[in-house]
Structures are given as C-alpha cells and as structure tokens.
TrEMBL record:
Highest taxon, organism lineage: Eukaryota
InterPro entries, sorted: LRR_dom_sf
Protein name per the record: F-box domain-containing protein
Length: 370
C-alpha cells in the first residue's frame, strides 16, 4: 500500500507542477518535501491547512521550502501536542497574513498557547487576520498593529470540566489590547465587559461585529458599540429583554448598518417592543435581518413589523429556533401560519426573501451579494 501511495504522490508532486493550495489530513505521515521536485512544486504555496496532529517533521520539512504562505490553518490544536513543526513553519514565512488555530479540546494549557502566540512575533507587521480558540496568554495582540480581523471562539470549551468560568479567566491581555485598524471582531463566550474594553481601544474602524454570549446584560456593550463604531455595517449580538430599549440608540447612531443578527436568550421574548423599535428606528440601509430564539416568532408582532415597513427596501428575513433540539418541539401549525404570513407580504413587496428554518453557520453571508 505504501508503494502505491508513494507512486501516486509522485504523480502530483514533481518538477513539472506547482501547487498554490495544500491540505494535509489527519494521520498523514509522509515526508512530501523529500519527493524529487517538491521544492519546485511547493515553493510558491499561498494557502496551507493541516491537522495539527500530523507528524511534525512534515511541517519542519515544508518550512525549508515554503516561505511565501499567506494563509495558514491548523485544525485540532490540543494541549498535549508538541507543535514544534507548526512553530517552525509559521516563523519561516515572509508575508504571512492570515492565521487560524482551531481547537477541539476542552482544556487549553497556558504554556502551550503561549508558544503558539509567540510564534507569530516575527510576522506581526504582516498578519491581518487571526483566529484563536483560547484566551490570549501574551501581549501578542497589541503587537499586531495591522490586524484587520480578530476571531476568538471559546464555544468548544466546556468550562464545567475545567472548573473555570469565563468571568474568572484572566482577560487582561485581551481587554487591554490596542487594535487601531481592526475592522472585524468575532467572539464567542467572551464576557461582554471584556469586549466593551477592547472595542473602546479600537479607532472607530469596526464595520463588522459578531458576538455570542448568552444570558448576560449587554447594555453596556451596546452603548460602547454605538459610541465607538459609527461605520458599523453588520452586527450580531445576544439580547435579553432588558437590552431591547438600548438597541434603539444603536440603530439611530449606526446609520451605515446593513445587516442585523439578533440572538434572544429569553423564555418570553418581547417581540412587540423589538419589532416596534426596528420599524421605527432602523437606518435607511438596514433591511437584512436574522432572528434566533428558543421561541417561534410571534405572529401578531411580525405582522405589525411588516405593516410598518412600507416604503422601505424590501427586507431579507431569516429566523430559526436556536438549536435543532428546540426545533423538534415547534408547533408546526404555527410555523405554517408564519410562512403564509411572510408569503403574503412578499406579494406586497415588503419582504424580498425569507427562510424560517435557518440553520446556516455563516452570520453575514449577505456580504457576498453586496
């Protein structure tokens, strides 16, 4: 089998071909850099993705011939790995712009994360996009002066297994980071008070914010957003009923807002007030909406929302139960009534398109059509 594999690899990796994208899957264990013609074939690689658990010697070998990678993706980063090959590959790059560390483990060892963060230091002037799935353990963010996009996703962490709660994690390196050029901020399970400090340390360039942190009063965070993000175009935020009134101030201050994703963590969402505020105060360019909740949209409230949307840009509407488990218990008759209502307002030109069973992970796929 190994002989066949080797011959197949040689068909692709040789002195007559060039690769610009390369993905190496889990358990791959072949020193491809040793194949004749590998340097010619892989020296201009721009995108590289691999499972972090592959033989690290493969990455060390690639680091000797691949110096121009712009995008790096590492999957399944775990605390017990000796990722010396990852570190060496990162440090070898001359124009690295986009780095993503995906973790699937419940626990992040601080010293392990520290090594990965420090591996970026050589490329702090070129990195523009960064995703990590742990709490920052060094001042690396403050060194990334040209960072345009930051994604911190802690959703895969099970804090009940670590005896650590998000509010008791050391967030100092994040909340005190200065990111003057940041345009995109995505965060999951990062406390709102920490994100508020981070947003205050930006310079007003944020155009896209996606935040998910359930069951917490976000009024202070909402205030910080509309005070510091006048050019905001896309927003995803978690709400409880107490936050809804503050939303109106955000709508009036953020006049470039184009798309809004609202996650409501309430057993009894205040749909009436939410839709009244959206109809009354939405800026002229806002017409793309997504609503996620444990409860189905209230029929009467939605009808009133549509009635008050006359003479505006026809809306794009998506709604879903927060997770598939809850979708099993939706009243199918009520769901059909909602569908019929939306179709009625499509005919009236109020709604352009809709999806009442939305389960797409992408927050702002609208951007692709802007």
């Amino acid at each position: 089998m190994s002989i066949i594999r080797n011959e197949v690899l040689k068909l692709f990796i040789n002195g007559n071909t060039k690769f610009f994208d390369l993905y190496i899957p889990q358990k791959f264990d072949y020193q491809i850099h040793l194949i004749s013609g590998a340097e010619h074939c892989l020296s201009e690689l721009k995108y590289f993705r691999c499972d972090a658990n592959i033989n690290q010697n493969i990455l060390i070998g690639l680091s000797s011939i691949c110096k121009s990678i712009k995008k790096l993706r590492f999957d399944d980063i775990v605390q017990y790995n000796n990722n010396f090959g990852i570190v060496k590959l990162i440090k070898a790059q001359k124009n690295l712009r986009d780095v993503c560390f995906n973790c699937y483990a419940n626990v992040r060892e601080k010293s392990h994360c520290k090594i990965l963060e420090e591996s970026l230091i050589k490329n702090v002037n070129t990195i523009q996009y960064l995703k990590i799935e742990w709490t920052p353990t060094t001042r690396i963010l403050s060194y990334l002066v040209n960072l345009l996009s930051l994604d911190i996703n802690l959703s895969s962490m099970n804090f009940s297994l670590t005896n650590i709660q998000p509010h008791y994690t050391n967030w100092g390196y994040l909340k005190n980071a200065s990111l003057p050029n940041l345009k995109i901020l995505r965060a999951q399970q990062v406390p709102s008070i920490i994100l508020a400090r981070l947003i205050e340390n930006t310079k007003g360039h944020l155009a896209e914010i996606s935040i998910c942190y359930e069951g917490v009063d976000n009024r202070k965070l909402i205030q910080v957003i509309y005070q510091n993000c006048a050019h905001l175009k896309y927003l995803k935020l978690s709400f409880i009923n107490a936050d809804i009134l503050e939303l109106e101030n955000l709508l009036m201050k953020c006049q470039y807002l184009n798309g809004l994703v609202i996650n409501i963590f309430e057993n009894n969402p205040d749909w009436d007030n939410l839709f009244k505020i959206l109809a009354r105060s939405s800026p002229i360019n806002l017409f793309k909406f997504k609503f996620s909740s444990f409860k189905t949209l209230k029929l009467e409230s939605l009808k009133s929302f549509f009635d008050n949307w006359k003479d505006r840009i026809p809306m794009l509407l998506q709604a879903n139960p927060y997770c598939f488990y809850y979708s099993l218990f939706i009243n199918k008759e009520q769901q059909q009534q909602l569908t019929n209502l939306v179709k009625k307002y499509i005919k009236k030109g109020i709604v352009k398109n809709y999806d009442l069973d939305w389960h797409i992970d992408e927050d702002f796929e609208w951007k692709n059509s802007d």
